[in-house]
Design a protein that fits this description.
alpha/beta; Rossmann fold; eight-stranded mixed sheet; 9 helices; globular; GDXG_lipolytic_enzyme; Alpha/beta-hydrolase
Length: 316
């Protein structure tokens, strides 16, 4: 809400994000359309779901992708959150990924929305993540609460990592067992200044001013940015699930911190899979065209995810 920051600061953030959202509609149309056309060729049933939130009369929108041959009893489920910079309304932008995971791994995939900043800064988006997972735990006739995996892209990957660490213990008290997390090109440490984040050969890097803007929208209070619920790289490694799958891009300035977190978690107590896709940028898989390196790297990444999830969720 606006009261988390001063009125004029909020007004400035609101004006900028409104302009950026309009620009995204124009620039994102063709890439999202390419993915949507590919996705619709995958024979997976998609169901619209409205998940109750902790706020009276407010629901969280989601899409549930069904496996081709659902089992007769409770089945494993992957809960996914889309990328957004915590500000862009992009539910459905991961449809190709969700359909492929549901089809190729034969599991349910719940693609859940979350509130966006600056209108709803931290902890609003994380509360929606927690509410979606609590709802999953109540669907024991459909989902196996002992075989739940989390997934996300960019800001959604950040939320998935937080849910898989700082929130995991409280969710376990509801008999919801998170056994794996898949993080596609996440930012894991929001306490570090954007200017300190770099790679030897950056590709299409976000301007530092834009990263500051995203952080200011999502967590305007800088003192909170060292909290493990904001920066999952600062969470206790023991809080993470038995399987961690980290996918990064060599040209993404967030890659080093994601790889560093994966290395910290690779302590012999869990299975850690790290895949850095060569010569591609943050968000490389969205709108990739056949014959490009982005297309090839997307195939590599999604194949790793399918195999890893099948192993983690014990799907034959």
């Amino acid at each position: 809400m606006a009261h988390h920051v001063g009125f004029f600061t909020y007004l400035r953030l609101k004006v900028i994000v409104t302009l950026l959202r309009g620009l995204l509609v124009v620039q994102g149309y063709l890439p999202l359309r390419r993915d949507r056309l590919l996705a619709q060729k995958i024979p997976v049933h998609r169901e619209r779901v409205r998940i109750p939130s902790r706020d009276p009369a407010r629901f969280i929108d989601a899409y549930l992708y069904h496996p081709p041959s659902p089992s007769s009893g409770p089945a494993p489920v992957v809960v996914n959150w889309h990328g957004s910079g915590w500000v862009f309304p992009l539910l459905g932008s991961d449809e190709l990924y969700c359909r492929r995971i549901a089809h190729e791994a034969s599991i349910y995939v719940l693609d859940a929305d979350y509130r966006k900043a600056p209108e709803n800064p931290y902890p609003g988006p994380l509360n929606d993540v927690e509410d979606a997972l609590r709802w999953v735990g109540l669907q024991s006739s459909r989902f196996d609460p002992a075989r739940v995996a989390l997934s996300g892209f960019s800001a959604g990957a950040h939320l998935a990592l937080v849910a898989a660490s700082a929130l995991r213990k409280s969710l376990a008290q509801l008999h919801l067992t998170i056994v794996a997390v898949v993080a596609h090109y996440p930012e894991t440490d929001l306490s570090a200044e954007p200017e300190t984040k770099t790679v030897p050969a950056p590709i299409r890097p976000h301007p530092h001013a834009m990263l500051h803007f995203f952080h200011d929208c999502f967590v305007p209070d800088k003192d909170l940015r060292t909290d493990p619920k904001v920066s999952p790289s600062r969470a206790d490694p023991a809080e993470f699930p038995p399987h961690v799958i980290m996918l990064t891009a060599s040209g993404d300035v967030f890659s080093p911190e994601a790889v560093e977190l994966a290395a910290k978690l690779d302590d012999g107590r869990r299975t850690v899979v790290v895949k850095t896709l060569a010569d591609v940028h943050h968000g490389f898989d969205k709108g990739a065209q056949r014959g490009t390196k982005e297309w090839d790297r997307r195939e590599e990444a999604y194949e790793v995810v399918v195999k890893s999830l099948k192993d983690a969720l014990q799907v034959s």
